[in-house]
Design goal:
Number of domains: 1
Number of helices: 2
Order of helices and strands: HH
Radius of gyration: 16 Å
Structural class: mainly alpha
Keywords: Coiled coil
Number of strands: 0
Distance between the termini: 19 Å
Shape: elongated
């Protein structure tokens, strides 16, 4: 396996991991919306979901940047 193939495989794994994390964030968001609302808990849940979403987006951006860099 050459270096390009290894890079491509690593980027694919990272992309799949980032997509999996985003899916988990969406599942938790859906569950929190459907759950009975308690003001204190729902605010904490919103903050946690926002933080997790931002982290997942950041990871996805990193994967895309590395994929673009490996193409050059």
């Amino acid at each position: 396996m050459n270096t390009q193939d290894q890079i491509r495989e690593l980027l694919t794994q990272e992309r799949l991991e980032a997509e999996h994390q985003q899916k988990n964030v969406l599942i938790r968001a859906t569950e929190s919306i459907e759950a009975p609302i308690e003001p204190v808990v729902s605010e904490e849940a919103r903050e946690l979901l926002t933080q997790e979403r931002l982290e997942a987006e950041h990871q996805q951006e990193n994967v895309l940047m590395r994929a673009a860099e490996s193409q050059h």
